[in-house]
Amino acid sequence: MSTVLPERIDAYPTHRIAEHPVRAGRLLPFGATPVPGGINFSVYSNNATAMTLVLFRRGEREPVAELPIPECFRIGGVYAMTVYGLDPETTQYGYRADGPFRPEEGHRFDPSRVLLDPYARVLEGQDTWGVPVDHEDRYLRRCGIAPDDFDWEGDRPLNRPEQDTVVYEAHVRGFTRHDSSGVDQPGTFAGLVQKIPYLVELGVTCVELMPVFEFDEMDNSRVDPTTGARLHNYWGYSTVGFFAPKASYAATGRHGMQVDELKNLVKQLHRAGIEVVLDVVFNHTAEGNELGPTMSFRGLDNRVYYMLTPDGHYYNFSGTGNTVNCNHPVVRGFVLDCLRYWASEFHVDGFRFDLASILGRAQDGRSLSDPPLVESLASDPVLRDCKLIAEAWDAGGLYQVGSFPDYCRFSEWNGRYRDTVRRFLRGDLGVTGDLATRVVGSPDLYQRRGPVASVNFVTAHDGFTLHDLVSYNEKHNDRNGEGNRDGDNANHSWNCGAEGPTDDPEVLALRARQQRNAMLLLLTSLGVPMIVAGDEVGRTQLGNNNAYCHDDEVSWFDWRLVERNRDMLAFTRHAIAFRAAHPALRRRRHPTGHMGDGLFPDVSWHGAHAWTPEWSGYNRLIAVMHYTRDEGVDDCVYVAANAHWEPCDLELPELPAHLAWHLFADTSAPYPHDSREPGSEPRLTDQSSYRIAPRSVLVLVAGGSASTSRGEDR
């Protein structure tokens, strides 16, 4: 009997259109998928009356063919067609969607436009960063087919526990674009790979990458009034292609290999023990309002993909012109498909959702108590192990820090933590009690979810750098070309006595101390700390708190600072290592303040007198002792912060005879005595008291009482 199997029936065409053999395609998955003998194309549009596939060949400007998709190839609102004889490596494509143009009803079909496939894995046409584009070019961007032969060599997402995470927020281009970076391919995924040893030495466990989805960096018509140079859409919070890595972030992007280059970055970071979280933007797209360009969603099904007013205008809860209709069933499916793709195909470890409150708005803009999209993200099986982080507010005034519908899965950027720490360090009255709540994981906001729900930060990409937070009272955004009107006015910053650059040694010393104060409070607070790239070496944006448009030294990481500010770098590295060494600072559950079977309560509060905190509104001193017994070993950390301009004598809590206080960090001490390598902290000579200097933070750790074990101090 013959064992030869028959050839597949579905590998043969049934029609011929524009000289191309075709047959009815598979409806799922959406996008362009190589199949035996050809490529399957599937695209959704519920309101289009006709759909045409436009084919290009790499390197040729004009289309090689336009193939109207037969009505018999459509099922429901999905047009699907398999085209045979195409080479996935050289084929590019787009669509023309015909249908009504009735803006007052929400329809904006325009068959003269060649549209991008929302599911395109590769976008081509802007492969080199910063090259102006001709928006009148009908064929400016094309969709491509992503290669599918990357060797992961057994890589998997790391699944690091949240309580062990230290996030490092970085911009792919800005991290290595400066001439001082010393990498072979500056400003790229490949360039970032070369800096992984720096990240390992620093001690961070997770890199949160600002948007890497395809966007148009030239989508900014303003110029720098100081230099006359054109400004950019540098941050990238204006997505063009949600499934496509940004080609100009890849050294190999001009060869169409950006997918593999980004995958290699993830693989190499994982090998170094560092997770990857992507900053994703599902609240709006690059198409803007009714005056913006038609690129994809607007031309395919405007009424489905965007929130529209009854007369067809765009709701603008994003502050950028349009708002994605996140809780429409089709759009909800699109977002899930997108994140599943990045989690499965790129092995990313999580996502930070920009303006996440929009994900919880109904199609008419109302805030939903149980938003379907957020619930779907929280319960999706593919995303089960991904870290999900919400920026729990939007530009429409919906502020949900502590009340975001989390479904026990989402953590949040804790804006309350940021503001409270800033105000305390500035010396504001009446914030000490709130600071106490923030440094133990904000139980008033996250009691049910625990401290790991709180992503603590003092600075982020959006706002002052840490250096500028202590160097400027006011924002200085004049170079953004908007008359200094943009950017937040509520910075809670303090210039320490002089606005901007100064050579006053007292001011500089105070600024250095304040930066250490912020970093040390951040890294000894319960929750998940986030550091912005460059804060560990005093990077400045010259007082600009909204540098979204600067592709220059305002935004780039200047690697000369690594040597110039090696003292701040060493301090940060020590603080990260100290956190990793002490389980009392890495809890999944909020402390209760009750006495267990150990030496002390899991958390206790102190002031100038041990066990006697001062909660009055005029007090600027706070001390907290964290305690846990981990695998039979006592771990006890004492943190005191003095925001007053006068010193204070602290009475220290008395330890059992077998333990003694050792000094980890005192931000008032000169380098290199401001911090120690964990495990080498010297024993305090005076175990009963310590004079804390003005505007400083002190960290002590309880260790063995023998003074010879760690040396002696003070």
Give the termini distance in whole angstroms.
92 Å
Instruction: Indicate the percent of residues in helices.
Output: 10-25%
Q: What structural class is derived from the secondary structure elements?
A: alpha/beta
Round the mean pLDDT to the nearest integer and report it.
95
Number of helical stretches of at least 4 residues:
14
Unreliable runs: none
Strand content: 15-25%
User: How many strand units?
Assistant: 32
Order of adjacent strands in the largest pleated sheet? 14-15-18-19-20-21-22-23
Shape: elongated
Rg from C-alpha positions?
Answer: 28 Å
Instruction: Report the biggest beta sheet as strand number plus sense, adding barrel if it closes.
Output: 8 strands, parallel, barrel
